[in-house]
Design brief:
This is Methyltransferase domain-containing protein. Pfam families: Methyltransf_25 (PF13649). InterPro entries: Methyltransf_25 (IPR041698), SAM-dependent_MTases_sf (IPR029063). The protein is an alpha/beta fold. It has one domain: Rossmann fold (3-Layer(aba) Sandwich). 33% of the residues lie in helices and 23% in strands. A seven-stranded mixed β-sheet has the order 3-2-1-4-5-7-6, with helices on both faces. The longest helix has 16 residues. The relative contact order is 0.15. Bound molecules: S-adenosylmethionine. The site of S-adenosylmethionine (SAM) has 23 residues, from helix 2, helix 4 and helix 5.
C-alpha cells in the first residue's frame, strides 16, 4: 500500500492540512487507508490530545466501576482512545471505523474485544439498541467525515442513563460544521433524548497546520487550534403507569 509519508513536521502539517480540506467521505476514508501506518507518529508530532481529553472527561463523570462497563469507540482509528480508556481501567472495549487499514492497526494493539467495519452516515452501527454504558467518538466530527445525521445512531446503541462523549475542532475551517453539530446536539436535548453534562473548550487542542487555522489569542495559545469535548447522559427510561415507553426511532433531526 502506498504510504502518506513519514517526514518532517512541515510534511505532517501539509498532510493533515490537506485532510482537513477534504469534504467528501469517500476521499477521506481513502486518505486514512493510506495514512494508517503513519497516523500515530504524525498525530503525536501534531500534539493531538483529543483522546486523552475525552477519556478524562468521560472517566470523571462515569458513575460506576470502569472495569465492568462496556464501551463503544466509534471511528476508533488506530486505537488511541482505547489506550487512554485502558489506562483508566475501562477494559471492555468495542470499536468501529470506516477504514480497514485503520482497523488493522487497532486490532494490532490488542485492546478491543470486538472491531467492526462500519461507515457512519451510510449504515447503522452493528449493535442492538441500548448495548453500551458509554459511547465515544473522538476526532471524526468534521466536514467529510461523520455527518451530524449519524449522532442519533450513537444514542440508539447507548443504554438508558449511559454516557456519550464527542469531540470536534473549533478552528476557523471547522466552525460551520461545529455550528451544525451543536444545533443537532441541542435539538436532541430539547426532545428530551439526553442532557448535556459538559461542554469543555480546550485552547491547546493540537498544533495548527497553518497560520490561517490559528485563532488569535494569548501567546500561550498561539500556534494551536482550539477544540471541544461534549459529554451527554442519555435519558433514563421512565415508565408512566399504564403507558408503554415509546420506541420511536431517533430520526428526522
Ligand atoms: C482523526 S481519526 C480519529 C481516530 C481516533 N478516534 C483518534 O482519536 O485517534 C478519524 C477516524 O474516523 C474514521 N472515519 C471518518 N469518517 C468516518 C465515517 N463516516 N464512518 C466511520 N469512520 C469514519 C477514519 O477512518 C479515521 O479512522
Amino acid at each position: 500500500m502506498a504510504r502518506e509519508g513519514d517526514g518532517s513536521l512541515s510534511e505532517v502539517w501539509a498532510r493533515v492540512g490537506s485532510l482537513h480540506r477534504i469534504n467528501d467521505l469517500a476521499h477521506t476514508l481513502h486518505f486514512y487507508e493510506r495514512w494508517a501506518l503513519d497516523y500515530d507518529q504524525d498525530v503525536a508530532n501534531l500534539q493531538y490530545r483529543a483522546p486523552r481529553l475525552a477519556v478524562d472527561c468521560l472517566s470523571q463523570a462515569f458513575p460506576g466501576p470502569p472495569h465492568s462497563a462496556l464501551i463503544l469507540d466509534v471511528a476508533c482509528g488506530t486505537g488511541l482512545v482505547a489506550v487512554e480508556l485502558q489506562a483508566r481501567g475501562f477494559l471492555q472495549l468495542h470499536g468501529v471505523d470506516g477504514s480497514p487499514a485503520m482497523l488493522e492497526q487497532a486490532q494490532a494493539r490488542g485492546l478491543y474485544q470486538h472491531l467492526s467495519l462500519c461507515t457512519l452516515g451510510q449504515e447503522p452501527l452493528p449493535s442492538p439498541e441500548g448495548t453500551y454504558d458509554a459511547v465515544l467518538m473522538v476526532g471524526a466530527l468534521s466536514d467529510g467525515q461523520v455527518p451530524c445525521s449519524a449522532i442519533p445512531e450513537l444514542l440508539r446503541v447507548t443504554k438508558p442513563g449511559g454516557l456519550v462523549c464527542l469531540t470536534t475542532r473549533a478552528n476557523p475551517s471547522n466552525l460551520r460544521y461545529k455550528a451544525a453539530l451543536e444545533a443537532t446536539l441541542d435539538r436532541l436535548e430539547q426532545a428530551g433524548e439526553w442532557e448535556r453534562l459538559v461542554a469543555w473548550t480546550v485552547d491547546r487542542w493540537e498544533l495548527a497546520t497553518s497560520k490561517l487555522e490559528e485563532v488569535p489569542g494569548t501567546s500561550d495559545t498561539d500556534g494551536y487550534i482550539p477544540g471541544i469535548v461534549y459529554l451527554y447522559r442519555k435519558q433514563e427510561v421512565t415508565q408512566v403507569e399504564g403507558v408503554r415507553p415509546s420506541a420511536q426511532p431517533l430520526t428526522g433531526l
